[in-house]
Every structure is written in C-alpha cells, then in structure tokens.
Amino acid sequence: GLQITSVHGAAVNAMLSLGNMMTIRYCILEGGSQDEWTAQAAVTADTNSVVANSLIISHGPLGIVFKYPGFVLHSTIVNAARIKNSVGIATGTTWVFDHTTVSNTAIFGFTHAVGHYSPDTFWSARTSNNMTDAPAGDSGNGPWPYGRGTISTVDLLPGAIYGVPMVDAFVRPGGDWRPSTASPLRGAGSAFGDFAVNCVVREPSCPGRTTYNFDAFNIIGIARPQAGRYDVGAW
To answer: 144: phi > 0 → left, psi -120 to 50 → alpha, else beta; which?
Structure first.
C-alpha cells in the first residue's frame, strides 16, 4: 500500500491503502480491484482522512472506504463498469471520532450509494447535498475490504437525491465526468464551510487540529460559486 499524508493536484492511477490523516484534494485517482486478495476500493483510508474536489474512478466493488470516519466533499465517485453489489462510500467503526461526512458529492455507477460495517456508525449531521443513481429506498448488503466473508450494511445517505440517471448527469459517462449542460448536478450544491480534522471527540482542540475549507475552487481551479450557485461533484 501507499501511505500518503497529502495529495494535491495529481492525476494518477493509484490505490491508497490505510494511510492516516490523508488529505486528497484536486485529484483524479483511479483504482480498485475485484481480486479478493487486494484492497477492492479505489481509495482506502484510515484515520482523519479527507477527499475533496476530486474524481475517484473505481474498477472494484468499492469507491472510497474509511476504516474510521472521514470527509468526502465536492467530489465525484464513479464506477463505469457498474460492478454488481458495489458500494460508493463505506465507513467503518466510529471509535473515538465523529461520524463520516459526505457533502456536495456525486456517487454514480454503484449498486448502492453508501454503507457501514460497525453498529456504532452513522452519517454526520453535516451530510447533505449529494446525488446518486442508486435507487430510491436503497437497502441491502455490500462488500467490505477488511476480511473475507464480511459484509457491509447499506444505508440511505442523508441529504441525497436518489435515482438520478447517469446519462443525464455527465457529458459522457465513462469518458467525461463533467456535468452536462442540463445536468441535475448543476446548482444542486451549497457551501460546506469550515471543518476540522486530526482530533478525537473528547479532545476537539488537540495539538494536531487542522481546519480546512474546500468551497472556493473546483477540481481544475475554477472559482466556486458560479452565478451564485454550487454544483454537486468535483466540477
């Protein structure tokens, strides 16, 4: 696995495995495997990790996996192969951290939008303004990369619009993941604001506290908002 503290402005074919405090921003990352002996997600992160203003292309049954809660903001998570029983974002045990937050994010091509493993896991109150082609009432089970035979439980993602056709959302699904001219992603987002990482719940102002705000620019550096509107996804 590749352990990375920060990735900024990269376009690579990679799989990030179990890195603590990773901040992935303004990137295109492509990976994931259908082999049971390798990590099956395009991005696998451990503690206090962030994916922001990035395009994540998965070739496996999982898009992004957080072993412990993290943030996905202003990003596009896709699976053009539409792998059966796949999950866009999966999150593990909460332990001593806040719950996972997903905001202003497009999750397309997966059987299910999101799922969790541990019974103490929920989605944070700041989860909002997301969009997916997973069906309304999405439910069931999905894969989990930590251990053979283990499954994740599918959730309904708070603040998400379900059942949006992929062909309506993007310029050319599988080749061009920018929102199309009449895309429902356009104008459906909002500013997320400041957020902090690297501390546990019982020590919210620990020495490692880092505050971010990723609202200002999209994946290619174009200012947000445009005409007073935020679009869902990396663009």
So the answer is: beta
pTM of the model: 0.91
Token pair recorded at residue 212: 């971010």
Q: Which two tokens stand for residue 219?
A: 């994946």
pLDDT in tens, 69-88: 999 999 999 998 999 999 99
β partners of residue 211: 196
Per-residue pLDDT tens digits for 121-165: 899 999 999 999 999 999 999 988 766 667 899 999 998 999 999
The whole-angstrom separation of Cα 32 and Cα 42 is: 4
Rounded CA Rg of the chain: 16
Question: 202-210: long-range contacts at Cβ-Cβ below 8 A with a sequence spacing of 24 or more?
Answer: 202/96, 208/21
- The dihedrals phi and psi of 167, each to the nearest 5 degrees, come to -65, -25
With beta carbons less than 8 A apart as the criterion, state whether 62 and 12 touch.
no
